[in-house]
TrEMBL record, chains A, B:
The keyword Lipid metabolism does not apply. Keywords: DNA-binding, Transcription, Transcription regulation. It comes from Lentzea tibetensis. One of its GO terms (molecular function) is transcription cis-regulatory region binding. It comes from the Bacteria. This is LacI family transcriptional regulator. Residues 4-58 form the HTH lacI-type domain. PANTHER family: ALANINE RACEMASE, LACI-RELATED TRANSCRIPTIONAL REPRESSOR. It holds the Pfam family LacI.
Amino acid sequence: MKRPTIKDIALRSGVSKGAVSLALNGRPGVSDSTRERVLSVAAALGYRPSSTARALSGARADAVGLVLARPLGAEAFFFRLIGGIQAELPMALLLQVVGDLDEEVELYRRWWAEHRVDGVFLVDLRVDDPRVAVVEELGLPAVVIGGAGHHGNVASVWADDAKAMTSVVEHLTSLGHRRIARVAGLPSLLHTARRDAAFRAAVPSGVIVSADYTDSRGAAATRELLLGAEPPTAIVYDNDVMAVAGVGVAAELGVTVPAELSIVAWDDSPLCRLIHPPLTALSRDTSAFGARAARALLAVLAGASPIDTEDTTPVLVARASTGHSSRS
Amino acid sequence: MKRPTIKDIALRSGVSKGAVSLALNGRPGVSDSTRERVLSVAAALGYRPSSTARALSGARADAVGLVLARPLGAEAFFFRLIGGIQAELPMALLLQVVGDLDEEVELYRRWWAEHRVDGVFLVDLRVDDPRVAVVEELGLPAVVIGGAGHHGNVASVWADDAKAMTSVVEHLTSLGHRRIARVAGLPSLLHTARRDAAFRAAVPSGVIVSADYTDSRGAAATRELLLGAEPPTAIVYDNDVMAVAGVGVAAELGVTVPAELSIVAWDDSPLCRLIHPPLTALSRDTSAFGARAARALLAVLAGASPIDTEDTTPVLVARASTGHSSRS
DNA sequence: CTGAAAGCGCTTACAG
DNA sequence: CTGAAAGCGCTTACAG
């Protein structure tokens, strides 16, 4: 037996397909008695609407999209984010990986033109990112994830990286550190720029070395800093993998952690907790962040005006990798 | 300007919509000259087919699906797997998380009835899994990921866990270990059963404690083993998180690793490499595994008969957590 | 309040 | 080889 369509329901309840559609979607235009009859027939038949057909007639696609342009950021972050999004979403997530931002933009155009998605999440915002303008132009409902500040008329969900950075610096200065350095993530990413700015404001004399989240670049950056003329007594890394690489380089150079060098990682993880010494880290609930983003997009889809939602600020968890500066 | 449809192409090339469709899809039924004209008009107009409309008319949906029934297995594994799948896939991945297997099955029925997907990946196979029979009944193209052996008439991609387990046991026995235990993953999962069987075959007297991949259960299992009447001199864990928890419990109980206890983790990870001592682990390229699964599904979609494809066997990487048994 | 029709953008028999 | 039509399963004006 084929699965039932509105035609079957129309037949068995003695009304037109149009009436069935109105009844099923809770729209005015049919009497209460008709509506009830249609609904009960639909239930009896085990009717499930076809989102494909709906999408073609211009209604809901019953899916939202997330496209990732390589290289993607920190693996674990995205997985938890997507997990959190999914858990909160009553629809499917259309996921696609593309090579660059141009392909990403092209995909948004297609998806929207075809009604394949009802909205999208924008991740990994760049400095001067073209995507916000595109979704605005298209009228494609969207939520920017992780971008502080306003993004045209697009909703966003963000965390206060500046405040988090300040809390890290305060922690270190209270331990007597004066020469603090930062090993940053990809310079093209907006949040790197924001963290850079916050770091510079808090540590005017601080050195920033740019890297790319990999352990090899994290190690190289650490070596560069520790072998410099004025080696730092504390380094703040933009992710856990680079921080762990930093611990390795320090050991290699005979620099003890935390006696001679304090280390802080931006995102907390099992890795931070389980290595020796355990790393002081900025901790946040990425899965909850994803759930918040999902709710924000659902709100936009429901017609709410786009707002910027602030997530909880990452919290500094002090562990054994930070200690009093021995050089001040 | 609206995006062009086959109607626009038909108009400008002076043929019917049907002919345009045939020409565009490379089907017989139109002359070469007509086909060329249609193709060039389509190119000039920047035509992109609507996969929504295609799906509704019963053709390709231009998407494949992956549904995850909670609780999902090891996080990192799935992320790498999905990353590997995506990289190989020329279409979108429809991803949805559901509460249980019944919902998962229901989703397959809907997706297939609506032509929302062209095929699906089946992951986390259970002992007596109902899903294989469902996709067979539906005729929904599918690939079983990670399930050794035949699964009805459904294609599969798998790795030889039994051989991998044997290599672990051989490594340990060659180091003089006789009392070897296993801390296993969820008993309901098929690959747990397979590893159990391989372990029992290799270590007839070996104890298996069942756990669930979490650090807390991994720690509890380790405690149970080490405080027992005949504590093992080596433990093989079903994932990295439990193995690391085991290291912690050993330290807590004053059992030194590897002098008094050797530890092996099933899946290698940064965590295994970076903790102290670094863990001996079974390593594999999960991303490549995902790519292989993607190719297998594409082959099935292209009409190939379903086959079982063996992935490379996980390789044992010996590190400092395993050593000669001091008690034999 | 309700029905009959047109349309979304394709594909696929069915005639010529 | 080609065209005109019907149909996929919905939604949405448009008449009554």
